[in-house]
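User: Hi! I have a protein structure encoded as tokens and I'd like to know what sequence might fold into it. I'm fairly new to this, so please keep things simple.
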């Protein structure tokens, strides 16, 4: 572990605080004493149902989804050697969205919609990789351009599906496209995938630092560049697919969080990867809490909140940075 791990301690405390706020705030707010009583195994029956059955699974799902998106964004930025790359830049979200909307139009349930979104994201991954590879080897620039074109194609299909969809199905489809954690379900999948991916990628931090300087320099220093790039692409695609399956299309987290951390903490991937996981989870947890409470009992799409929070913060950091 590199020196200067105090940011990870602060981010871990911020993650715990965000979970506490998510459990306490809502259309029915709980005092700290009532919340501690529920977490300690006591408290009123209504409070236990509210916290343990409704708010806790959603808060954990929000944290896991944000962690996956931020970690995928950090990996994409190393893979493409582009600080403005994000998990959706290769059209993964578009493929998942088209499949999910088709499942909704077919009248399928929530679990089947999630499965369709996951399948669409993986299909988009294979298409982009196959087209970018072509008859020769792929480069980050070629993959980026292929992903941008595929994303534009998926966007056109999404617009077509929305135009021909029945009016009564449009609200649910639009909420899914803007990101919605209301039907996230069990959080253990996203949390498990986030923890496993960090365990797999953390030992590669030093190697990723070398790769970030360029493929030719990394190869000259003995790094197996092509297998490492394949690994980054597949892991980032899998993380994005799981996140989109859980919460729909939530933008800006994978772009903003790694870039903000890099501006503040430097470019050491041994620190950036775990920091991205913690910061991304914290950001999306706070955003979802705001989405639930701003106009309670009605709820806003969490993707709207992430954009409203992220755009001014990102522009301010860019203004302050050299």
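Assistant: Happy to help. Inverse folding works backwards from shape to sequence: for each of the 322 positions I chose a residue that suits the local structure. Here it is:
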């Amino acid at each position: 572990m590199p020196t200067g791990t105090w940011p990870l301690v602060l981010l871990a405390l911020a993650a715990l605080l965000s979970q506490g706020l998510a459990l306490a705030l809502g259309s029915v707010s709980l005092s700290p004493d009532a919340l501690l009583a529920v977490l300690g195994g006591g408290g009123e029956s209504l409070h236990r149902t509210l916290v343990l059955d409704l708010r806790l699974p959603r808060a954990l799902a929000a944290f896991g989804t944000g962690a996956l998106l931020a970690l995928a964004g950090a990996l994409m930025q190393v893979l493409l050697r582009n600080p403005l790359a994000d998990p959706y830049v290769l059209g993964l979200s578009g493929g998942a969205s088209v499949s999910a909307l088709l499942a909704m139009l077919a009248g399928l349930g929530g679990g089947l919609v999630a499965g369709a979104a996951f399948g669409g994201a993986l299909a988009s991954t294979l298409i982009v990789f196959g087209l970018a590879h072509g008859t020769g080897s792929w480069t980050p620039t070629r993959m980026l351009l292929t992903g941008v074109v595929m994303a534009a194609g998926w966007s056109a299909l999404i617009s077509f599906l929305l135009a021909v969809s029945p009016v009564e199905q449009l609200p649910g489809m639009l909420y899914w496209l803007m990101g919605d954690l209301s039907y996230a379900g069990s959080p253990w999948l996203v949390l498990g995938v986030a923890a496993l991916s960090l365990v797999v990628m953390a030992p590669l931090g030093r190697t990723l630092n070398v790769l970030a300087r360029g493929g030719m320099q990394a190869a000259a220093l003995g790094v197996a560049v092509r297998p490492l790039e394949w690994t980054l692409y597949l892991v980032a695609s899998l993380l994005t697919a799981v996140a989109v399956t859980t919460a729909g299309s939530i933008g800006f987290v994978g772009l903003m969080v790694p870039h903000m951390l890099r501006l503040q903490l430097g470019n050491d991937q041994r620190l950036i990867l775990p920091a991205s996981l913690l910061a991304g989870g914290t950001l999306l947890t706070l955003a979802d809490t705001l989405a639930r409470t701003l106009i309670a009992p009605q709820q806003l799409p969490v993707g709207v909140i992430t954009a409203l929070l992220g755009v001014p913060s990102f522009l301010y950091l860019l203004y302050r940075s050299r």
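A useful reference point when you look it over: The domain at 6-320 is CATH 1.10.3470.10 (ABC transporter involved in vitamin B12 uptake, BtuC). Feel free to ask if any position seems puzzling.
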